[in-house]
Amino acid sequence: MNRPPQLKGSLLTGHYGQFKKDPINLLLNASNELGDIFVLKAFSKSIYFVNHPDLIEYVSQTNYENYIKTPATPLRRILGDSIFTTDGEEWLQKRRLYQPALNNTAIMHYFSLVQDSTEEMMRDIATESVLSSTVNATRLMTNVTISVLGKTLFGSNLQLGPNIYGDIATIMEWISDRRLRHPFVVPISWPTPNNKKFLAAVNSMDQMIYRIIEEKKGDHNSNDLLTRFMNPEEGSVKLNPKSLRDEVMTIFLAGHETSANVLNWTFYMLASHSDIQEKVFQEITSIGDRPLAYDDLHSLIYTSQVLQETMRMYPPVWHYGRVTREADKVGGYDIPANTALRISPLTIHNRPEYWKNPEKFDPTRFDNPQDIQAYTHIPFGSGPRLCAGRNFAMMEMLLIINEVVKTYKLSYVGEPIQMSPMITLRSKGDIQLIMEKR
User: Fold this and answer.
1) Who has the most CB within 10 Å: 116, 230, 233, 367?
2) Which 8-state DSSP code applies to residue 380?
3) How far apart are CA 170 and CA 203, in angstroms?
4) Distance between CA atoms of 324 and 341, rounded to whole angstroms?
């Protein structure tokens, strides 16, 4: 069998030790040394990485039906059978359910709800900036994105409960721990402290979600996401309470975490590049001294480029996986059936063959989007499984950036912030920014 190249590793553990210690540099080094396709090993398990736009297109688009979601993962334990974890006809039915709930008309309605959450965040910034010399951008972005999802998912008048933030943090930490840090984990049924804490958080989230589902039965007039899911358009599958719960949990966890991280990194980049921040400010103020309207988003061209460049350098999902149904040949190499295969936006976004000086933060790379080679910029995934909520996320992030930069001048003093690769690409520690009122 013709196998792809691999880095030198331990005879016993392969590259597991390196991956556990520093997965970012392991992947970037493998990408730089081995190029288009390579293998990493965790003990006896081989994991194939495709790292060329043509190969990414083949796996995620051309022959995507042969590359399915991993059947059993920690994510499925919490997300159930949702759009994120299913394949085939079941996934397609869920995708059709999302389309009308996240089309331009629906996003236009959600705009005012995002504005409400952003106004709450701005009040929090005003309070925190008085009490402290720096503002915790990481915590603020987490709070505002959870608030946004609460309003858009359930409606503006529903209370999420005081434990929601801690429950979400516990769940994400448990999943990351099992996926990235430990090859051998005890079953979820074992009553370890971590398992008990995780199950309590899941139970708390489930109780909240099922309570809200019950309260919204018979509500055909609201425009929030949950109401749309409970009253689908003709031709779409009607979800039972368990399926509704799975989709809501997926949106809550995946939706807030990715947007919060991108915003966190974006404000760090703006605070570290005063010239770029000034260009964003000039673009925002050129709209006029009035609240941002939905149609104004199309005028925030440079601000959108800043977001795209942030997601190039700090892709919210830094690698994602598939499993082969049947044996295949990719890039001239044999890929056996039932093989783990991964795509890393982080590595393809840093290949100098496609991005000149990839370590430099430069939003002008996106001046002419049509010149960017397909499948070299994939922050929202690729192929048919391209993130269904990407347009909503862009709207949300543009609105939040607009309000913050219009009101505050950002700066950062300290050592460079390192990446912390969990399920998503977080910052290593919270980012503290100086925010001066303009």
Assistant:
1) 230
2) T
3) 12
4) 7
- Number of structural domains the chain divides into: 1
Q: What is the DSSP letter of 369?
A: G
Q: pLDDT tens, 99-156? A: 888 889 999 999 999 999 999 999 999 999 888 889 999 999 999 998 998 888 877 5
The DSSP code sequence of 138-198 is HHHHHHHHHHHHHHHHH-TT----TTHHHHHHHHHHHHHIIIII-SS---TTS--HHHHHH
| 37-42 and 45-50 beta bridge pairing | antiparallel
Neighbours of 227 (CB within 10 A): 17
On whether residue 347 sits in a domain, the answer given is yes
The CA distance from 204 to 211, in Å, is 11
Residue 368 lies in a domain: no
Burial of 338 (0-12, 13-18, 19+ CB in 10 A): exposed
In a domain, 107, yes or no: no
Q: What is d(CA 37, CA 345) in angstroms, rounded to the nearest whole number? A: 14
Give domain status of residue 4, yes or no. Answer: yes
| Other CB atoms within 10 Å distance of the CB of residue 407 | 15
Surface-to-core class of residue 337, CB atoms within 10 Å of its CB (0-12 exposed, 13-18 middle, 19+ buried) = exposed
User: What global pTM score does this model have?
Assistant: 0.93
Domain membership of residue 326 as a residue range: 1-74+318-362
Which of 145, 117, 107, 114 has its CA nearest to residue 223? 107
26: domain CATH number? 3.30.43.20
Q: What is the C-alpha separation between 431 and 109, in angstroms, rounded?
A: 32
pLDDT of residue 287: 94
CA separation for the pair 29, 218 (Å, rounded): 55
pLDDT at 158 over 80: no
